[in-house]
What we know:
The complex is a heterodimer of chains A (244) and B (107). Chain A is built from 13 helices and no strands. In chain A, 51% of the residues are buried. In chain A, helix 9 packs across helix 11 (175-187). Chain A is mostly helical and 244 residues long. Chain A folds into 2 domains: 2-187, no CATH class; 188-244, no CATH class. Chain B is mainly alpha-helical. Chain B is extended and about 45 Å long. Chains A and B meet through helix 4, helix 5, helix 6, helix 7 and helix 8 of A and helix 1, helix 2, strand 2, helix 3 and helix 4 of B.
Amino acid sequence: MISMHSEEKTVSWLAIIKDGVVGAWPICLGYLAIGLAFGVIAQKAGFSPMEIGLMSLLVYAGSAQFIGISMLSAGAGIIPIIITTFTINLRHMLMSSSLSTFMRNLGIGRLSLFAYGVTDESFALNTARFRDGNWDWRRALVLNHTSNLAWIISTVAGGFSGRFIPAGALGIDYALIAMFVCLLVFQLRGRLYVIVAIISGILAVALSLLLPGNAYIVAASVIAATLGVFLKKSRRFAGTERTS
Amino acid sequence: MIHENYLYVILGMGVVTYIPRWLPLVFLSRRRLPDWFEQWLDLIPAAILSALILPILITTGEPRHLDLLRPELIVAVPTLAFAVKTRSLAGTVILGMFLFWLAGKFF
């Protein structure tokens, strides 16, 4: 922590911005594909590019925006839409909790600015970078806002001009899946992590078949991580993380 | 021209999206957390990434059902192997996209 502070001063803002922007490229690629698709759907549902852009800026949550647009065009009321959005995005609470362990001793302003950009994708990428080292809240913040900008631009572009990149072109629809696969691999830092991931994945599939919406993500992760803590306590996995 | 009603809807959506992102960062980052909770948080990324990705790979449709022959899953196998072997994010993303594009020619 002490060395980090002295390092922060010697590295210029330009280098930090560059790290964050360059680091965000897989997310930008993925958001381009999904954002365009969203813009096209929203435009067909009768929303203007301005309305689309404002939603991407204020909400900034892919799946909730898709569902929001479809509920709005189905004539749903404001309260059901907001409740649905809340339940869909509750999973970010887990991600922010996990990220908080890397965001020590920051002021409320910086934390608030960072919180805006916490998505599935930025969480996954920032977590991997934080673990690697050579990453700090500034780079993470730049990565978040670069991704946000890519999302806003892509959704508005989709709303203006339709799908100028055809569906499936260059496999761009697979960018985020491939990114998640790789970032999951980075998280498997020992036997315990592999076991937790397997339990979580199987639970998520089973629950996704049983429960409506995406509650399965939070449910499976919480159960699997809790089991993981108990497994670790049982000392059979004592050697997986610390060499004690 | 933006309808007033639409503005309220997206403002509401924005607020309820922002709060779960904000609360844990502000309340947890400045507290000393018990060991078991730190361990729990340490396991969350592996758990949540797996919970995000696996249903995308092997389920589809509305209502959801299992489908083990999706190109998403078939492409994920070599992509995963490549990620394990090289530990390269850029390489994995590019290979995954290429294979998915290739798979699109056959499915």
